[in-house]
Amino acid sequence: MKKQKLIKLLVLFIGISSHAQNKNIHVEPLAKEFKTGETGLKRKVAIARFSNETTYAKGVFYNKDNDPVGKQGVDILSTKLASSNKFILLEREDLDKILSEINYAGNDAYQKVGADYIIIGSITEFGRKNVGGQGVFSRSKTQTVYAGVSIRLIDVSTGQIIYSEEAKGEAETTSKTTLGLGKQADYDQTLSDKAISVAISKLVENIINNCMNNPWKSYFLTNDENGILISGGKSQGLKIGDVFDVVQKGKSIKNPQNGMMMELPGKTIGKIRIDFTGGDNPQSEFSMVTFIEGAINSKDLGNYYIKEIKL
């Protein structure tokens, strides 16, 4: 009888021990994923700044110009925006390194490209906690990391903040030991990365929607005997046969309430059709167009812009 009890206890011990070294990592569910297959006219977006406004990772030798947590935020946000296939992302964070390499190579062909929107972000909250549990035969330890991220999306043409929001992300891991067996878990550094990534993921879809809700715009480059050219081409999604509105800019007036200059709504004065796209990259791309309705003053090209027709 004693032998049978001993065998049962041994089986129970083996079953418990098989789970002794389990280590479960839980990451808070991400925001709804966007469809990467659906592409429209791509907007030019630059991440102007992403800073760490918390005390996390700020030691004695901390340098705000070399903030690893802020750079991590830039990398995560850039990767997620690029995966949407809706933007042309322009480098701003490490632009000084790019310009330095261009000067070193003696390349005079570098072209500056303005963004349609810039993003300013910061990590506003960061913390972690450890919670332990103890049972009859087992002990557990749960590590939790949470992060808060704030984002501002600015329309470069107006300087207006068109979207601002803060989101929080959380990630945790649990380690267990049974009857003294199992790995004692140290602090998991990857939880910090996961928590920041979750927080940023919650904001990406809203960034995309706010950028795409505003009509795509372009501008006239030339209008002479050699043809009519506008900026933008294949990489931004322009195709031969596409039709766009031509808008004459509204009058600029000073708002007496806040003292700022503002542009009144423009007037649609014609339509153009894309006949040809050329250029090797977003900086040099252009499209040749034909007016199918209306006309413009070729001596005042800056007074007009091309706008996507929203259905």
Topology readout:
Elements: H1 2-17, E1 23-27, E2 43-52, H2 68-83, E3 87-90, H3 95-105, E4 117-134, E5 138-155, E6 160-178, H4 190-213, E7 217-218, E8 220-224, E9 227-231, E10 243-248, E11 252-254, E12 261-263, E13 267-278, E14 286-294, E15 304-307
Parallel strand pairs: 2-3, 2-4
Antiparallel strand pairs: 1-6, 4-5, 5-6, 7-15, 8-9, 9-14, 10-13, 10-15, 11-12, 13-14
What does this protein structure show overall?
- The chain has helices at 2-17, 68-83, 95-105, 190-213, and strands at residues 23-27, 43-52, 87-90, 117-134, 138-155, 160-178, 217-218, 220-224, 227-231, 243-248, 252-254, 261-263, 267-278, 286-294, 304-307.
- By secondary structure, the chain is of the alpha+beta class.
- Helix 2 packs across helix 4.
- The longest helix has 24 residues, at 190-213.
- The chain is elongated.
- The model is unreliable at 9-23 and 30-39 (pLDDT under 50).
Q: The biggest beta sheet, please?
A: 7 strands, antiparallel
- Identify the overall geometry: elongated
| Unreliable sequence segments | 9-23, 30-39
Report the count of strand segments: 15
Radius of gyration: 28 Å
Q: Helices and strands: which structural class?
A: alpha+beta
**Strand sequence of the main sheet, in spatial order?**
7-15-10-13-14-9-8
Percent of residues in helices: 10-25%
Question: Beta-sheet strand percentage?
Answer: 35-45%
**Count of discrete alpha- or pi-helical segments spanning 4 or more residues:** 4
Q: What are the secondary-structure elements, in order, as H or E?
A: HEEHEHEEEHEEEEEEEEE
